[in-house]
Amino acid sequence: RRVHGSHQSCYSSMKSIFDSQITALDELKSKQLYVFSYMFDKAKDSGLVSDNSGGVITVGDYKKAAVKTCGDQLKAQRFQCLDLTYIYYIFSQGFKLSDAHVLHIVKKVKGQEIAWPLGAAFKLLAQ
């Protein structure tokens, strides 16, 4: 079954909910970012990475995947559309990262699955 929706309508919803709610950290623009957990799963589900070994993508790759998924407008894809658009919005508007910013997508760190907020803390503590 088809449902009404598009990447742009999801993106507008994100903007109305999250605009000015996220504080961008200028330091992120010059850092290598590692993405875990939910964001890994969504990248894998959309074909951005092919297996659990992960890979390297860009912020803009999430947008491309969102536009493609949202364009399908199949009922089964509506949450994937929303999830990919949310991830793209967080990186591009929330954290103010360019579409070309590189993201390292990983499932595990030293053999352990890790949630992405813990991954951010882990990196800060290691410095």
Describe this structure in words.
The chain is mainly alpha-helical and 127 residues long. It contains five helices and five strands, in the order H-E-H-E-H-H-E-E-E-H. A three-stranded mixed β-sheet has the order 1-3-2. It has a two-stranded antiparallel ribbon with strand order 4-5. Strand 4 and strand 5 form a beta hairpin. Helix 1 packs across helix 4, helix 2 packs across helix 4 and helix 3 packs antiparallel against helix 4. The protein is globular and about 40 Å long. The N and C termini lie far apart (50 Å). The mean pLDDT is 80.
Number of strands: 5
Number of helices: 5
The dominant shape is: globular
Main sheet: which strands, in order across? 1-3-2
Structural class call reads mainly alpha
C-alpha-based Rg, rounded: 15 Å
**Helix share, percent:** 40-55%
Give me the strand/helix succession: HEHEHHEEEH
Low-pLDDT sequence parts:
none
Task: Report on the biggest sheet.
Answer: 3 strands, mixed
Q: Report the average pLDDT across residues.
A: 80
Q: How many angstroms does the end-to-end distance come to?
A: 50 Å
Percent of residues in β-strands: 5-15%
Précis, in short:
This protein is mainly α and 127 residues long. It is built from 5 helices and 5 strands.
Topology (elements, then pairings):
Blueprint: H1 7-18, E1 33-35, H2 37-45, E2 55-58, H3 59-72, H4 78-94, E3 102-105, E4 108-109, E5 112-113, H5 116-126
Parallel strand pairs: 1-3
Antiparallel strand pairs: 2-3, 4-5
Helix pairs in contact: 1-4, 2-4, 3-4
Main attributes of the structure:
three-stranded mixed β-sheet; two-stranded antiparallel sheet; mainly alpha; 5 helices; 5 strands; 127 residues
